[in-house]
Amino acid sequence: MKLALAALIGLATLAPLHAKEVRPGKVTMSDPVVVAVSAPGETRWGRHQFVSLSPYPGNRILLRFHAEEDAVNAYGSGQPTLISADGGRTWQNFQEEGLPTSGLCCEVLNGEFLAVPATKPLDVAAAKLTLPKPVGEFYAYRPIHFYRADQAAPEIQAYLSKQPAMRWTPEIKKWLPEEVSFEMRDRLIWVAGGHEGGLVSGTWFERSPIRVGHDLVFAEYRASYLAADGSVPKGNGVTCMASHDNGRTWEQRGTIAFPDAIPGEVHSMMEPVLVKNALGQLVCVIRRADQNQKSMVITFSKDRGRSWETPRPMTELGNYGVMPALLQLEGGPLILSYGRPGVHLTFSWDGSGRQWDKPLTLVKGDPEKLNNKTDGYTVMFPLGKNEFLIGYTDFEHVDAKGQKRKAILVRRIQVGENR
Q1: CB-based contacts of 412: which residues, under 8 Å, 6+ apart?
Q2: pTM of the full predicted structure?
Q3: 20 to 30 A Cα–Cα from 202, which one of 116, 168, 237, 355?
């Protein structure tokens, strides 16, 4: 059974842009495929959540999800892993020699794949180290302190600058270990308070890097940096990181957004997603919600990530937006998925990202109970010129025995022009 939805609502304009006029298209969604389910009655936050989809050698799709507490001390834990060889219709448990047990598999240049997973946090006390004097503090669910990396012990700097990784090449067709380095100039260390106190965390690929010319770029928020004037940001900022050597070393190319980028407001900028739109510009959508639910923000770069427009709140989409996902279909619309509460899809039919259609709702959420029904985290994966997968969670899935379980779902969506 398939459900056809006519997306014909007028477009909400963020800013004028010269782009071709494209009529809203027809969106056809298949029934969801249930990839995995939790034990009956599982309600603990973090377990059986946060699904990811990424490409894998052999034209396959890798799916992973989180199985531990949503906390710093769970970073680097193994994740349930499945693979599909038929475009997401069926899934099998999977592990391959050398492939890290968590994180994305990112397709980079020259037919190569790169995996940079989260590592276990560095326990400063257990390592008999001390942190320098904090230089800043902000609040995101709990107090978080900033420290200057150049004032930290050499062991802490080494942990942050070199990230264990694995690379697959078409010549060898095996996963081989290497180290990926991240720029340390003006680098800040963040350490959360409470039971996570004293745990230093590095960074990893939450989103796949994208190709821009001969370089790779991605939007980074876990590795924070000082502002150009040497000041400490008032929370997480987002940096455009660039690599000239196919992902082996990463340097700052430009600041995408600081917490106070919107005049009169201060919100940590988190969980960014970056794509190249139909006009060749970079588009970044960012979550700015934690304990206070806020709309997402969007910003654009016309010079490959060196400079960025002032972020604009996407208020026309409401106060939503954890872990937004962006997908530019070849020659077609730019698609945004997002959630909490619920799970939603919207389309920029001219591919620019400046205008967005009225959202389609896949999971209806409850604004008064944000963590009910779904975690709101979404991911998309292209299948062709006009087709893609969306992955998300359903906390209220009922199995054949009538038992409620958390479920990892994948849904196939096709986009076509109305004629």
Answers
A1: 29, 30, 33, 87, 88, 89, 383, 387, 388, 389
A2: 0.92
A3: 168
